[in-house]
Amino acid sequence: MDKIKFFKEKTENRVKKLGDYYSNQGLFKGEKLNEYKYLNNCSDFDKCSNLKNKDLCFWTGGVAHVGSKYDFAIKGKVFRIVVTGIDYGEEGLKSLEERRKSIEEDCASDMQRNKHMKGTADVLKTIFEIEKEDNNEFIEGNHVFEMFALVNYLKCSVTHKSNQVKKGKVSSTASTNLMYRNCSFHYLEEIKILKPSIIIFQGTKAPKAFRDYIEKNKVGEIKEKRERIWEVKIKDLKFYTFNFYHPSARGRYYWRKHFKEVVTPTIKYAKNKGYIVKL
Q1: Beta bridge partners of 138
Q2: 58-82 confidence digits (pLDDT tens)
Q3: Strand positions, DSSP E, 106-259
Q4: Contact between residue 61 and residue 28 where contact means Cβ atoms under 8 Å apart
């Protein structure tokens, strides 16, 4: 008997609610204004896109990926996984359907995928108790990319036009603190729709912005359970966050070392505590 049961109707209802929210908030990508800017109708668009540095470009359209098998239960225990990165990093896709296809079909089949998605696969495999060195990315015939949601904290992106990124001299993202503050409300609304059991934060800015928003606006409660693990309660919603480095971070944040010394033992600890479901 299969250990995993899926609730696809619930997942598609969440996708519809997300689409309605993006539409109502004006967060879908709009018409092209110039080479590096697309219009959207977000109330903070003009503030966030007003960049002083002419070597920067502003992108919109960073909608979430919600896996087609996002809602599932293992041995009767409902479990939902959200991974939160920084931003889309380039011109966004127009629809939730396109975003899902880009992850489930294109990225899942491409073993030469970028560092971010390689690191995301590492984390998901660890959650599903698949060895990192194992080329297998399936559990009971289901690809791990079908069983999570990727929700970037920022709905828009700022990147460098220059080739300095390729030379490793600057970060590929140049998104601002203002964007983090303005997007916190939208991110929380996405989380309310998705109702995760856990959130894997990738990078240091997003969890800080999230905690600042929660505490400043008194919309929930955050307790530190262990270094890098928070318990979050927002009304009737309770979940745990895991605050890791971004898989494509450089220098002392090098992913392979971080994954071995921090990510793996933290997930193992969380499974023993019941924060993450065991297979």
Answers
A1: 143
A2: 888 789 999 999 999 999 999 999 9
A3: 138-139, 142-143, 149-150, 157-160, 198-202, 221-226, 229-234, 237-244
A4: yes
